[in-house]
Amino acid sequence: MTPVTTFAGRTVAVFGVARSGLAAARALAAGGATVVCADDTAGSRTAAAAAGFTVEDLREADWSRFAALVLAPGVPLTHPEPHWIVRKAQVAGVEIIGDVELYCRERAKIAPDAPFVAITGTNGKSTTTALTAHILRSAGRDVQMGGNIGTAILDLAPPARDRVHVIEMSSFQIELTPSLAPSVGVLLNISPDHLDRHGTMEHYAALKARLVAHAEHPVIGEDDDWCRDIAERLRLANRTWVDLVSVRGRSSHGWYVNGTELVARAR
User: Fold this and answer.
1) Is 125 a known active-site residue?
2) Cα(101)–Cα(117) distance, rounded to whole angstroms?
3) What phi and psi, each to the nearest 5 degrees, are found at residue 229?
């Protein structure tokens, strides 16, 4: 577990207490926060209560006591319309964040140099995450893998300078992680998906772009127009260290496939 100490002494609401939500509640409590859980599903409320957490109906709660709302990624933030608890938090001026944001804040506090590889894309992100973790483990590194794949990020060991976190991130998770700034950010591809939750392709692509926007080392697939546009905007912002990846042709710089070979082309 990664105890979240950045909310020590404050009260935090956690809504959606299935896998990642319950992990966030445990991590917040371990870090010294008072946690109040809520969920639309009776089974999840029962599980949270059985785990020792206070469970309340937050429709009539005093929201002035909450320092933040930690929202499960499956709960609508904007489309097709904000969930009722989102509206409650917005009216009260309470920030809305996700479990990966809690990890990012803890990393910034205790181990800002800890290696953090974040991976997203419409297709292939689970495979890429698993392969990246496997390669790093084979190289003898201490690797923690999770996020949208397998283990919730806060159930992993804490960030440390000699430990690599390899984290798959969905667009829902990115949306709830405003301080996302991984060591390596990988954006594989973008094609229409989850538009019922994001409204338009432009909004969906903008969310995906956030993963590489503040990465120390962005890696972007260049085989679709959306990703090429994101890479070009980073280049125009003088992010000259962006690496491109292609399986369809010669990359201007970065990596591409030539038959059965993987070729690195220098800038």
Assistant:
1) yes
2) 14
3) -65, -40
